[in-house]
Amino acid sequence: MNATPPHGRLLLVPTPLDHGCDGQSPLEAVLPLATVQAAAHIGHWISENAKSTRAFLKRVGDVAPLATPVQAQQITELPREAHKKGDHGPGAARVDARALLAPALQGHDVGLISEAGMPAIADPGSSVVRAAHDLGLQVVPLVGPISLMLALAASGLNGQHFAFVGYLPREGPARLQRIQELEKLALRTGQTQLFIETPYRNAALLQALAQGLQPGTRLAVASGLTLPTPQVRSQAVRQWRALLADAGQAAGPWDQPAVFAFGP
């Protein structure tokens, strides 16, 4: 009787934060060599976007030889509804992640990857991690950049008590209501509120925050993290109002991926 092959692992592979940005940092400047080498040996992937995964693997191949050529990599995308609704919590997309992990049950390491940063953190993928645990697979998070943590550390806000709240509503009245609800929570508990937005709406969100928050609340915006010219500004809302009144939407390069945070 043939022995059952040992199971592969699920590796959580972080990627550079420069997706959607004008420039790129050298891969070895933002990812440890051990992470790059681990990615180079993976031939099976569960991906947020196959095109961006192939682009990442080409960058990996420039640093460490790929065990499997990019064209031969097995890349399976998460369902699109997982991007829109998420794959965890109320109202989330139903993803049968166990089927995605079939290669790991056959003995292959599988990489979980998003377009930027750590998968399953402010990105889909938690259903895959859960399924790996339920199947008895080893889950190995690799070291790399996480935009939320970098922004929080650079904000001067409470790093002991914080929450990531995802995206705020797009519509003006609903967005203002949500901003004020979160501000009340932050002022009452000291909890920092972290959130993100699609880059082309960053400027509109910044204006809404400057107008909707109380003057003394501290608001931080971080963009271009790990790039050659990162921008992190953290100051009271009254100072943001003065800045935006003088400079308008040109108060900073907020047209690229950014993390917003506020608190007392």
Describe the structure.
- The protein is of the alpha/beta class and 264 residues long.
- It has 2 domains: 10-141, Tetrapyrrole methylase, N-terminal domain (Cobalt-precorrin-4 Transmethylase, domain 1), CATH 3.40.1010.10; 147-263, Methyltransferase, Cobalt-precorrin-4 Transmethylase, Domain 2 (2-Layer Sandwich).
- It is 36% helix and 18% strand.
- It contains 11 helices and 10 strands.
- It has a 5-stranded parallel sheet, with helices on one face. Strands 6-7-10-8-9 form a 5-stranded mixed sheet, with helices on both faces.
- Helix 10 crosses helix 11.
- The chain is elongated and about 60 Å long.
- The N and C termini lie far apart (65 Å).
- It comes from Ottowia flava.
- This is SAM-dependent methyltransferase.
- Residues 86-233 form the Tetrapyrrole methylase domain.
Number of extended strands: 10
Order of adjacent strands in the largest pleated sheet? 3-2-4-1-5
Shape: elongated
Question: Which consecutive residue ranges, at least 5 long each, have pLDDT under 50?
Answer: none
> How many distinct folded domains?
2
Question: H/E element string?
Answer: EHHEHEHHHEHEHEHEHEEHE
Name of the CATH class of the largest domain: Alpha Beta
Give the rounded overall mean pLDDT: 90
* CATH arch. level architecture of the largest domain: 3-Layer(aba) Sandwich
Can you identify the CATH superfamily of the largest domain?
Tetrapyrrole methylase, N-terminal domain
Distance between the termini: 65 Å
Task: Write down the Rg.
Answer: 20 Å
Percentage of residues assigned to helices: 25-40%
Strand residues, percent: 15-25%
Please name the CATH topology of the largest domain.
Answer: Cobalt-precorrin-4 Transmethylase, domain 1
Number of helices: 11
The chain-level structural class is alpha/beta
* Biggest sheet descriptor: 5 strands, parallel
GO molecular function, one term: methyltransferase activity
Keywords: Cytoplasm, Methyltransferase, rRNA processing, S-adenosyl-L-methionine, Transferase
Domain Tetrapyrrole methylase: 86-233
Organism: Ottowia flava
